[in-house]
Amino acid sequence: MKNIQFSDFGKKLCGPSGINQLMDDIGKPLPKNIPVCQMGGGNPARIPEVEAMYRAQMEKILRCGDDFENLIGRYDAPQGRTSFIASAAEYLSKTFGWNIGPENIAVTNGSQSAFFYLFNMFSGTYTGGGGKTRKSVVFPLIPEYVGYADQGIETGTFIGIPADFSLYPDHTFKYHIDFEKLEQYLENHGDVGALCVTRPTNPTGNVLTDDEVHHLARLAALYDIPLFVDNAYGLPWPDIIFSGAEPYWDENVVLSMSLSKIGLPSLRTGIVIAQKELISALSRMNAIAALASGSMGQALAGELIGSGALVETAKNSVRPFYEKKSAYMQECIHNYFAGTDYYVHKSEGSIFLWLLMPALSITTKKLYELLKAQGVFVMPGEYFFFGSAPDGSLPPVEAHPHFTKCLRLNYARPDGEISRAVRIISELYRRNCT
Fold it and tell me: How confident is the prediction for the chain on average, in pLDDT?
């Protein structure tokens, strides 16, 4: 073709985006003389105990008759692998007392796919009642995960509520939901289709308190809309939570889980827990978009969930590993940034630190380019601020004082990479301070 023309859908999904930049940078090599520090992506660390657990499980599959051949040679149902779903439903219902069964769980090719389905099921154009309406998804705590920002098929359907924050004398800070602004927006806009949060929060490492989650759930019930909770780093697996928190589910909550951060990122296994009518719809959508979800992650993890081994490994190996890595990166930041104006978001979970540099005289997108030239890959903070209200009823997310002042740093990397990266970031910050 001499002149390729894309539809509006094609233009939106094929254009530049923060998530595309992130994934591209993970795979692109630098010249051989530049050592690389990959602080930008979301890839989890390799943890020997986790890998040994999955290796043993794979060896068991290989030893058992034609289990391996059946695993690689047959599609699962669009809802997911029956045995995996049964194990997950039984474990979650018994452990947390949730009133769920297999009909409340679906599996997708990663939670990223699940949210693409969910966002577009509950935002955009609705036809009915003799007319058309246009609904939005509201994100109560911006900055929020960059991977969401471009997932709406229709433009202008994501609304972000800029976060409140508290600064502390120890060079830390913490974001809070501005419930006053959120409740005012919900009261004055009947076009909200859903609420969405990550817990722990990507990019900041924030963990919404139990009270905040319960407050959001009450609002979802009041307005009869779903509350999407992305639990990719949370409980009961991978359990990368360092603060006191309890998992929560009710019939207004759509809880998303994943196997990526407990050692299986390449097997793309997302788990959605919701009321059965939504699971049925999600399964039909998955059949159209993907026929079925990949089976390997489900086959490896299903028995481990049922036996409790997955959760034990999360508790005894995964959480301590990341808590130690977080502490090390924080130590590096406090050492290298000493004497400058800086803050680190309180590290309560996930695999990221969120570094605030109030005196930065350039944007973090510009800082990103300077860092990349020295082999240090980070995620500029601007990408995590999205969803300005088109009607001006909320402060624009770009007006948040942290918009051009923050970096997301992945601390799942080796200590030497972490130390080198933080040192170079601090040096460039000192050169580009107001």
Answer: 95
pLDDT of residue 28: 66
Query: Are residues 254 and 282 in contact, defined by beta-carbon separation less than 8 angstroms?
Result: no
Structure tokens that stand for 90 in this block: 């039984």
Q: How far from the centroid of its chain's Cα atoms is residue 288's Cα?
A: 24
Q: Give the count of beta carbons closer than 10 Å to the beta carbon of residue 219.
A: 20
Mean pLDDT over residues 231-235, rounded? Answer: 97
Query: 135 pairs with which residues across the strands?
Result: 124
364's CB contacts (< 8 A; 6+ apart) are: 380, 381, 382, 404, 405, 406, 407
Q: Would you put residue 130 in left (φ > 0), alpha (ψ -120 to 50) or beta?
A: left
State how far the Cα of 97 lies from the Cα of 95, in Å rounded to an integer: 6
Count Cα atoms within 13 angstroms, Cβ side, for 124.
Answer: 13
Higher pLDDT pick, 28 / 155: 155
Amino acid at 82: T
Domain boundaries, the chain: 16-48+313-431, 74-310
* Superfamily of the domain at 16-48+313-431: Aspartate Aminotransferase, domain 1 (3.90.1150.10)
Bridge partner residues of 407 (DSSP): 355, 380
pLDDT at 9 (0 to 100): 82
Q: Which of 361, 406, 360 is nearest to 383 (CA)?
A: 406
Q: How far separated are the first and last CA of the chain, in Å rounded?
A: 51
Q: Are 350 and 330 in contact (CB under 8 A)?
A: no
Cβ atoms of residues 106 and 77 within 8 Å? no
| CB distance 292 to 78 below 8 Å | yes
The pLDDT, as a whole number, for residue 33 is 82
CB atoms within 10 A of CB 120: 17
The pLDDT of residue 129: 79
Nearest to 353 by CA among 325, 383, 319, 377: 325
Residue 283 CB coordination number (10 Å): 19
pTM over 0.85, yes/no: yes
Q: Count of alpha carbons within 13 Å of 375, Cβ hemisphere only? A: 14
Question: Which CATH entry fits the domain spanning 74-310: 3.40.30.10, 3.40.640.10, 3.40.50.410, 3.40.50.2300?
Answer: 3.40.640.10
β strands within 343-390, DSSP E: 343-345, 352-356, 376-377, 379-380
pLDDT recorded at residue 38 = 93
With H, G, I as helix, E, B as strand and everything else as coil, classify residue 338.
Answer: coil
